[in-house]
Amino acid sequence: MHYKKLAVAAASKRIRTVLPTRLSTTTSSLLSLRRCLSTRDCTVSSDSSADPPAFTNSRIRSNPRATPSRDPRPAKPTTPLVVKLSSKDRPSKFKIPDSVSKTVARELLRNKYLFSEYSLFSPHRGFQKWKNHGLLKHTKIPDDFFRGRIPIKLYPYQVDGPRFILASPAPEKKEAPPAPAKPEYGAMRSHVQIVAAPTADTPGACLLVHYDNRRYVFGHLSEGTQRLFTEHKIPAAKLSHIFLTGKTDWATTGGLLGMILTVADVIISAKTAVEEENRLRRKKNKPDIVHGGPQRIEIHGSKNLEHMLAAARRFVFRKGFPLDAHELRADPRAANPENSEPDYEDENLKVWKIPLVATGMESRSRSSSTGSQNPRKRKLNSSEEPEAMETVAEEEDGEVVEDVPAGLENDEEKTRLLMQTIIKHMFDSDWKADTLVEQPLHKVKLPAKIFVRDDEGKITVYKGPLPGRDANVPDIRVLVREPWPGALIHRLPPTDPCFDSTCYIVKNHARRGKFQPANALKYGLPKWTFSKLAKGESVTAEDGTVVTPDMVLDPPIPGHGFALIDVRYEYLLDSLLRRPEWENKEIMEHIDAFYWILSPEVKDDSRLKDFMAKHNSFKHIVLGEGMNPNTISFAGASGKAIMMHRMDPDRFSIPNHNNQEEALPAGLASVAELGKPGERLLLSPTVEFQPKFANALMNTIRPIKELTSTHAKAFNLALEAQEKVSDPAFAARVAESEQDIPNRDAEIVTLGTGSALPSKYRNVSATLIRVPGYGSYLFDCGENTLGQLRRVYGYAETDAILRDLRAIYISHLHADHHLGVPSVLARRAAANAALPADEAPKPLTIISTSKYIGFLHEYKDVEPLDWSNIKFLTLIGTGRKPTDDPSGPHSADLGPGNNHFNMLPGTLCALQPASFRGNPSEALESQTGLASIDACFVDHCLGATAAVFTWPSGLKISFSGDCRPSDAFAQIGKGSHLLIHECTFDDELIGEAKAKKHSTASEALDVGRKMGARRVLLTHFSQRYPKMQAPVLDELERQEQSVSGGEKKGDRTVVLYAFDYMKIKLGEFKMAERFLPALRELYGELEENEEEDGDGAEGKE
Predict the structure, then answer these.
(1) Please, are residues 613 and 581 in contact by the beta-carbon 8 Å criterion?
(2) Measuring CA to CA, which residue among 961, 332, 394, 901 is closest to residue 587?
(3) What residues contact residue 466 under an 8 Å CB cut-off, 6+ apart?
(4) pLDDT at 1011
(5) SS3 442
(6) pTM of the model
(7) Comparing C-alpha atoms, which of 675, 588, 664 is closest to residue 207?
């Protein structure tokens, strides 16, 4: 008897049911064999004795490891289903129920058909328990017991005959069934946590509602929220619902796209891992495992939420991640104010959506964002150039026609259906990039990659005349990649800005009352039935009485909840006061707290104070800009910046912050209190406010103490460097060697130096260039660039920089390079509005490819910014390489369909409109302050560019974006005074760099050598290097040591490593270079310490 093998197999869930054909062994040995086996899928009936024929007719699969038996056929089933026991084993008076508890095993024994129930104890105790409970004399195997299972014969484990294991076949792939609409009882434990309060780099207020199986976000998903989740180790794997408050604009949703992409990647990775595991398990005849996390994500918000998501179709694409967007377009209680049915409900909570209607805002409609009356046709205004849009064509009468899908101009339902279809294809498409469709060449719509079959049937790229471009197009059939469905919509139907605010009331479901054993004993129920009653199941007493749960349980415990009110604008207050929900007892009962998202515009309004005073039975918690202190949100990055400020105060500053406790206005202080990030409201099992979980304020002295004590060697090296650079003779030698570098006072500010997504120590890509006399320029503008600016310069100086901003260059469409642009534009518009009436704002130019400019053109329908002061310069393909004849025509001028065929890496870009071309260009200088812009396409993603900017003073700065090393870029950037190049990977990861189309440290430095760049700044580091890339610092340190004996005559290339919050002038590179040994020592020690502390481990709540 190989009992141990069977037990191990059962413990690993290989065995569902074991059916021996004959039994000639003792009961104790049987119980010993069966201790680990559980057949939860088996139900037993005692009213029939028919033997199902399914067992004998079932397909038999032999085990390859088994030893053949002489008679592989199972013994024939016998008709009698009676257990004959000796007198000492006769059943007691206790009749076996259908089940006992979790620790009960069920047995079916072939031939004797013995059915028993017992607890999982040792054999003798188990036997005694089974004996005391008694036996069922008549037991039937249910007719459907074998349905969907395969009986597998195992010869080694036969007991006087073959025995069988019932194995369930692989389940069909089906979507998870929807959660019950109205669950009977709610979760046992849940709480609300304040994740974010308004600060410089977390401008929105955000709540996290925590259940064991799911997480829900309520409030704003503003820029920086995703990074805050990382900072406080809040995993996003269980996030399933996002409820956005307020109106749809970038202040509310700026971090939404980044959060969606992160959650999608987490869930898709988990699903992929489960599928791979199941593939291996099926080979071993093991049952599949199921992905237990969220299967989809749902987003709720105000009008234009779908439009905002669909506008991102150009750069957002995931597969296998269903996403549903739900806009609140109508008042749920408009028809019946007394309606108390929730607007959303699942197994955990109920949500009532409350729309606050903007009164007096009817005049601020679509005209404020586009100036259009006809959604299909409109005149161009001064801020729009037809060449800037890939979807705009100019007609002879000076008007333009936007490529809006026909029939959708005024049909709201069809428009919503289109939006939902686009969103589905963005996140859960079954489209495959390698699918080829055959069609006539003249019907091919450009842009498209065209293939043909040669005489041997092989597929090759078509290189002949193109439809729409050439006159003589051959009448042949070609193969074309099926375009992604979202790309077929060139222009979304226009929409109007909406100023209504969405708010929520959230409540748990009622919980089952406490079980009272005394009540159960009154009915003569044994104790092993208590668990059934506690779970809500009814039990039949010995006298036939059916005991229901309500007969032995206390009354249900009501579910508690909270309200979240976003009322940042004065025009919403009247609607707030008129809402019928405040008088609806069923909705407001057991609401314990009101969370308020406020702004300086409404904080002194007496109506708000009166409302809170009237509803003084609730706890009122305020989260608002200008009320919550500007505390440091990202302690990891700020701590390192403080250390580096102590080492090199000229290049690094302490992040702008305020740890002083702010006081609410006098009117609000008497009725409300200020919320703090981290504070919790426990909703179940009891209601309790828990301020003890509030995030502690960062101690800004601690990093300095750590530097001077723990990292004393690095600090001493920094002091030596400070002494060196303060030497007047050193400064004189540097100035003499840099006499030919113009604008040595130009300042480079590295606001974000990480790649892909924000991390604890690095934000995503953004570099600010400040050139005195010309203006400020942003090269890439990743999420939360505005917050990084405010940490470096403070609020007032940031506004001054934004007013001086002349151009924003976006290198490519990956989200980590441009999601910060809308908030920068919004804040710039507000800063310009504060200018004196006689001072005109400076024009701003956005430079990128047509796809990104198309995104901005669609988004401007959502948020009414000052678009009249913004121009667009589009980078289009020329098809020429730097070595080609410059006098040749721009092939881009030959037709719009040709642009997409000339985006090959290594080819040059041209500016559109054509009036901005030239070197120098008067139009370009007037608009941007630049003499010329040269760019080329690079090897990264479709349309990725690198650019060279030249100022009238002769200053030349080259910016690589993301790319593999590019000879074309090195050619157009020759003689650059500064090269800013990506350095995503170490040299040892050259294979990964090639696969992901990034550069290593040595490759970036090689581009600088080919370019002859005087200064090189390395940035855009993989987030796998949380602080620094040690090999890069080794290389830079060796370079610095090679000239430590004194400066060479003339100048040489100086290479530096970028950090978040770093400010360095072009003439200070050699000073900063002296600190490389100190930085190398500091970060080597820091990374060693964190490895010992396990800082790299995954976060947990």
Answers:
(1) no
(2) 332
(3) 446, 450, 473, 897, 898, 901
(4) 96
(5) helix
(6) 0.78
(7) 675
